[in-house]
């Protein structure tokens, strides 16, 4: 029976560390500030934004909220992002997705200054990760890395398989594991022998969006299994991409859904905001 990797506990540990660090920054006259833009009335987005604001409040990060009506034009949003880019008191800018259809998401998110890209989504941030230079790391994959490390598992020399190749999760995940000297393979929807490859993994990270895609037969005995997926099963219950009940009998360690990767994403967003403020101190 696998060890449960507790994302709630590990994310709380990170938030406590950040809280301490923010208190120290404040003592030096630096208050990290996150600007959060929400356009429209999508209820899931409103919940995500509320959770991010709560985390900011807990840690001591100032959160500035811009809640705009769904009729907001692209030009209005461009103007706001430009102003926030120039505002020296703002360390991070987060545009909650999805945006209403009249607005080009890629154009708006692409306008955020790389210095304030706390989501780590910009080509500049991904490029920095690719060549191993300083930059914001995408929050969900960075959270997965922390889960693995803080649970005491080493990555160096391990066979790592990432299922999924999205720009926000799969690709940066593979790059982060590579940076840690893992031997990394990415599999995706066109992979022919998926199970054969996933069964080689010492560390298996699954980010697909397909309930229970990964079964016990797809997993090596003793693997560390990280489930990024967030889906609803046939009964409307939250579930991951991994068949938790069966895989837990075979794995060495596994993340649950909920309570695994989810809480880590916000913790790493907070870490990126503090990182932006840390940089200010170094400048
Ligand atoms: P995405 O952009 O839809 O990408 C899914 C990836 O999975 C694609 O690369 C796709 O391959 C691959 N895929 C789809 N079906 C497959 C199959 N049958 N076998 C192998 N690979 C397959 O999704 P995402 O944004 O990466 O998110 C993935 C999951 O993670 C979702 O459930 C999402 O809700 C969850 N998520 C959770 C958090 C969190 O904080 N917990 C954060 C982000 C995402 P192709 O490229 O070939 O199409």
From TrEMBL:
<comment type="similarity">
    <text>Belongs to the tetrahydrofolate dehydrogenase/cyclohydrolase family.</text>
</comment>
<dbReference type="InterPro" id="IPR000672">
    <property type="entry name" value="THF_DH/CycHdrlase"/>
</dbReference>
<dbReference type="GO" id="GO:0004488">
    <property type="term" value="F:methylenetetrahydrofolate dehydrogenase (NADP+) activity"/>
</dbReference>
<keyword id="KW-0658">Purine biosynthesis</keyword>
<dbReference type="InterPro" id="IPR046346">
    <property type="entry name" value="Aminoacid_DH-like_N_sf"/>
</dbReference>
<dbReference type="GO" id="GO:0006164">
    <property type="term" value="P:purine nucleotide biosynthetic process"/>
</dbReference>
<dbReference type="InterPro" id="IPR020631">
    <property type="entry name" value="THF_DH/CycHdrlase_NAD-bd_dom"/>
</dbReference>
<keyword id="KW-0028">Amino-acid biosynthesis</keyword>
<dbReference type="GO" id="GO:0005829">
    <property type="term" value="C:cytosol"/>
</dbReference>
<feature type="domain" description="Tetrahydrofolate dehydrogenase/cyclohydrolase NAD(P)-binding">
    <location>
        <begin position="138"/>
        <end position="280"/>
    </location>
</feature>
<keyword id="KW-0486">Methionine biosynthesis</keyword>
<dbReference type="InterPro" id="IPR020867">
    <property type="entry name" value="THF_DH/CycHdrlase_CS"/>
</dbReference>
<comment type="subunit">
    <text>Homodimer.</text>
</comment>
<protein>
    <recommendedName>
        <fullName>Bifunctional protein FolD</fullName>
        <ecNumber>1.5.1.5</ecNumber>
        <ecNumber>3.5.4.9</ecNumber>
    </recommendedName>
</protein>
<dbReference type="GO" id="GO:0009086">
    <property type="term" value="P:methionine biosynthetic process"/>
</dbReference>
<keyword id="KW-0554">One-carbon metabolism</keyword>
<dbReference type="Pfam" id="PF02882">
    <property type="entry name" value="THF_DHG_CYH_C"/>
</dbReference>
<comment type="function">
    <text>Catalyzes the oxidation of 5,10-methylenetetrahydrofolate to 5,10-methenyltetrahydrofolate and then the hydrolysis of 5,10-methenyltetrahydrofolate to 10-formyltetrahydrofolate.</text>
</comment>
<feature type="binding site">
    <location>
        <begin position="164"/>
        <end position="166"/>
    </location>
    <ligand>
        <name>NADP(+)</name>
    </ligand>
</feature>
<keyword id="KW-0560">Oxidoreductase</keyword>
<dbReference type="GO" id="GO:0004477">
    <property type="term" value="F:methenyltetrahydrofolate cyclohydrolase activity"/>
</dbReference>
<keyword id="KW-0378">Hydrolase</keyword>
<keyword id="KW-0521">NADP</keyword>
<dbReference type="Pfam" id="PF00763">
    <property type="entry name" value="THF_DHG_CYH"/>
</dbReference>
<comment type="pathway">
    <text>One-carbon metabolism; tetrahydrofolate interconversion.</text>
</comment>
<dbReference type="InterPro" id="IPR036291">
    <property type="entry name" value="NAD(P)-bd_dom_sf"/>
</dbReference>
<dbReference type="InterPro" id="IPR020630">
    <property type="entry name" value="THF_DH/CycHdrlase_cat_dom"/>
</dbReference>
<keyword id="KW-0511">Multifunctional enzyme</keyword>
<dbReference type="GO" id="GO:0035999">
    <property type="term" value="P:tetrahydrofolate interconversion"/>
</dbReference>
<feature type="domain" description="Tetrahydrofolate dehydrogenase/cyclohydrolase catalytic">
    <location>
        <begin position="5"/>
        <end position="119"/>
    </location>
</feature>
<dbReference type="GO" id="GO:0000105">
    <property type="term" value="P:L-histidine biosynthetic process"/>
</dbReference>
<keyword id="KW-0368">Histidine biosynthesis</keyword>
């Amino acid at each position: 029976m696998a060890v449960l990797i507790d994302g709630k506990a590990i994310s709380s540990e990170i938030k406590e560390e950040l809280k301490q660090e923010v208190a120290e920054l404040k003592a030096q006259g630096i208050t990290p500030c996150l600007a959060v833009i929400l356009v429209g009335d999508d209820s899931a987005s409103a919940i995500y934004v509320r959770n991010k604001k709560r985390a900011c409040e807990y840690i001591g990060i100032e959160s500035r909220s811009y809640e705009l009506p769904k009729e907001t034009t692209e030009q209005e949003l461009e103007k706001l992002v430009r102003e926030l880019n120039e505002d020296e008191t703002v360390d991070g800018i987060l545009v909650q997705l999805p945006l209403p259809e009249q607005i080009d998401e890629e154009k708006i998110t692409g306008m955020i200054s790389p210095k304030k890209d706390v989501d780590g989504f910009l080509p500049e941030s991904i490029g920095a990760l690719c060549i191993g230079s300083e930059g914001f790391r995408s929050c969900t994959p960075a959270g997965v890395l922390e889960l693995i490390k803080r649970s005491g598992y080493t990555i160096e020399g391990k066979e790592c398989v990432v299922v999924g190749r999205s720009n926000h999760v799969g690709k940066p995940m593979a790059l982060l594991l590579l940076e840690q000297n893992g031997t990394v393979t990415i599999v995706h929807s066109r992979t022919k022998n998926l199970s054969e490859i996933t069964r080689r993994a010492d560390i298996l990270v699954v980010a697909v969006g397909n309930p229970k895609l990964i079964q016990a037969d797809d997993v090596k005995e003793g693997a560390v299994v990280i489930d990024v997926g967030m889906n609803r099963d046939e009964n409307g219950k939250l579930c991951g991409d991994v068949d938790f009940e069966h895989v837990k009998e075979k794995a060495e360690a596994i993340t649950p859904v909920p309570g695994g990767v989810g809480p880590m994403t916000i913790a790493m967003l907070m870490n990126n905001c503090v990182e932006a403020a840390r940089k200010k101190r170094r400048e």
